[in-house]
Amino acid sequence: MRFFTKSYQLDNFAGINLCIDLLPKDCLSVFYSRFGRPVAQTVVPGVGRIVFIPKSIVNSDLVDLQKDGLLRLAYSSN
Questions:
Q1: CB 9 within 8 A of CB 65
Q2: pTM (2 decimals)?
Q3: How confident is the model at residue 42, as a pLDDT?
Q4: 19: helix, coil or strand?
């Protein structure tokens, strides 16, 4: 969740499209408490329900266009 939060803060985008049917219920509550409540929902056939959580204006001062897109998720198979 640390990587996602940092990316959310630094990158310049409108919000999060979250596939809620693919996540455990307790994970949803963490997303909502950290990033806000969804303002829209749709259903995509074969995928399920998707909600949109707009990026808070409070976080707009954290956007860093120099670092936007430079974050990389480190992956280890161990």
A1: no
A2: 0.66
A3: 96
A4: strand
Q: What are phi and psi of 66, to 5 degrees?
A: -70, -30
Q: How far apart are CA 37 and CA 51, in angstroms?
A: 9
pLDDT tens profile 23-70? 888 889 888 988 889 999 999 999 899 999 888 765 556 555 555 555
The dihedrals phi and psi of 67, each to the nearest 5 degrees, come to -100, -10
What SS3 state is found at 46?
Answer: coil
Residue 44 CA to residue 61 CA, distance in Å, equals 33
d(Cα 70, Cα 25) in Å, to the nearest integer? 31
CA–CA gap between residue 45 and residue 33 (Å, rounded): 27
